[in-house]
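Late entry, evening session. Most of the bench is empty. Finally got around to the prediction I had been postponing all week. Sequence below, unchanged from the version circulated by S.P.
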Amino acid sequence: MKTLSHYLLKFHFQLIQWNHSLYSFYILLATLFLLTSNSALAQDYALIKGVVSSDKSELLSGVTIQVKNQSIIGQTNKEGEFSLIKVPAKSTLIFSRLGYKSFSLELGLETVGENILNIVLIPEIQSLDEVYITEKFKAYNLNNIDFAKFSAFPQNSGSFESFIKNLPGVAGNNELSSQYSVRGGNFDENLVYLNNVEIYRPLLIRSGQQEGLGFINPSLSSNVYFSAGGFEARYGDKLSSILDVRYNKPDSLTIEAQAGLLLSSATLKLPLKNGFLLAGLRTKNNQSLLERQNIDGEYSSRFSDYQFLLKHNITPKLNFSLFGLYNQGKLEVIPKNRITEFGTSDDVLRLFVNYSGSEKSQYDATNGALTFSYNPNSTLNVKWISSIASINENEDTNLLGWYSFIERGSGGLNSSNTTGLLGAGSNQTFFQNELKSLIYNSELKIYKQIKTSFLEMGLRFQTDIIEDQLNEFNATDTSGYSYPETGKWAFSDLIDQTNKVNIQRLSGFIQNTFNIGSKLTIAAGMRFNYNNFSNENLISPRLSFMYSAGQNDQVLLRFSVGNYNQAPYYRDIKNYNGLLNLNARAQKSFHFISGADYTFDGLGTRLKFSSELYYKILAKITPYKIEDLKIRYLSDKTAKGYAAGADFALSGKFAKDLESTFRISIMKTEEDIVDDSYFSQDKLGNAISINPGYLRRPTDQLFNIGMMFQDRLIQNPTYKVHLNLIYSSALPVGPPGPQRHTDRFKIPAYKRVDIGFSKDFADLESRKRAPFVKKYFQSLSLHAELFNLLNFKNTISYLWLNDKKGNQYAVPNYLSARMLNLRLIAKLKTK
């Protein structure tokens, strides 16, 4: 349909021929008509839906659909379906996909109702550039995570690891920390890779306050793979999990910036003629978050992170990539006082503490990697990866506190039912620690496609150089308010130790992935590991199956079994008193995992249900205690144990283009320390020796439930809501000290609800888009987030105190309270 403005232009040329003097008058009329015709033009839009398939009736995913000369672009999903809105009534659609001929279609669309298109693409039969094999990611206990689907969720850490905590089998009870536990393992049992380079993190972590930014930049990530156990031989020798993050070549020039009350960042993605460049900068300030804890004081926190990845093709078959990372964190706390109410409703206790001194911590971490990749032919790829990691950490704490706690009885803080002073005294905490880590390695990897088999092998050499200077103690005066010179001080945890460790490691693997028929795929492999500290030759066979029981992968059945040997690293050979256990040996675990994925239609959308059952046999493991988030190993002891449980997850798009997921995990993990015993008294007062047997491990958590839900407002779909809910049941805990059998108490269940609202002002569905936004921004979104919506008082650890009668009390240390955060994310147009 020709619009009024079309005829107006035609009439314009007639006017020029008739009388040039009428030209100015026409300009005025044309402007008025063009303005009034906008409403008519705005109505000439259509909705298009359809399916794209091949000439063999195969549904095609990843087909790009673009409206010619418009910024309207869509893509088909796994079922070959696509949908485009606000398409001009007269348009040309271009369908394109690698390996198929591009197809253009001129359309005259109906503006009322839906326009249905079924498109068939023809394979492109022509001489193409040679495609080279690199790596194989079709693993069966390795989940591909599309982080972009969840990037709008509220998270106060700004770290990638905070999203990992929402996956099945993963637990994390501290929003200030990037630490996470996977199926009963601790934080040290998780492997993190960034473009084939293993990432090492600071070790002097106590409460999570010292952590600012995780080492993974979400804005640079293109592919993320995660396994909660049963991972393949090509991955390393840790006991629990794998996080494999990839920074890859961008499709186009991208400039993105984010500014918020907690986190600010800038990202550049630049395609080059023979490669690409990625660069990211992040800064974070935790001050406003930390000030909402139950200690009043002055907080100063500064965290920054710089990363880049440069890849260059030297020849069509040879390329190199250079990666660099610098992560820095500084925290200084000058506490003034603390008032904490705890106990039960019938027996309310109140702690008063006045402080003198300060806590300081700092770390500087630098990672660098150089990778050469050579493709002599289309079925062979050789990689040589060399990397270095340097981390310097410092703790400088000298804190003196004068405390008293009283019993209020029932009625809480406003009650006058006070029974008196229970205890008073002084406590001094002193740390002056310095830890330097230097780790470098070099690795050769080979990938070979042989008909239907994919062969992988690798050999790696690594050196760990650790220097640790420890000077710390705790002192308690229970005689009343006293100064160190006059009080009756009892010193504990007195450590004055210097450790130097130099460990050489040699490891390698071989793995073959092959098909038996069209439905069964098997991955079989073996790792070996040797280090000169424990002088062990460790062999780890691993086997995985995947069977497609339905059509189009509707039902997938998985099974994995394997041995995992974690060779000694510095932290797990350092004993509770700071001394090294020179007889430390590798920790061992044997995994049995079975799972199923089922894709079906329900609740008005396409749903995916995933489940896994697992049992892990733990042999020769090193027991440990977690004190204020710090892992303290009992390296002179050995234990056996198990971890068993089940993970269930349901995900789907309950609102257009917005993924939501629900999960629940059930787990039990225990350990029995070899030759462990303690003395007690029988009813007659006689001393007896007790063997405690199996004990709950510090990460034993029966239930872990999570939900990440997204929705749109019906009246205006450009407004979105993002809800994040976590419930984790109680964890075992006990007083400080190397005795594991004293962990008979519980940290209450962790409960947290975060909610966020977002509006993208550049969204194509927006009713009104400012011309400035439309011209310069691909997206411009404002996020309002409310952390800890219900203001739960979650406990991270306890301060243990004795009253004048010798009774012991556990005073809770609470995590962050409710907080409002704002952030603005802008992605600029580059064309």
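Two things to note before I forget:
Residues 23-42 form the longest helix (20 residues).
DSSP finds six helices and 45 strands in the chain.
Will write this up properly tomorrow.
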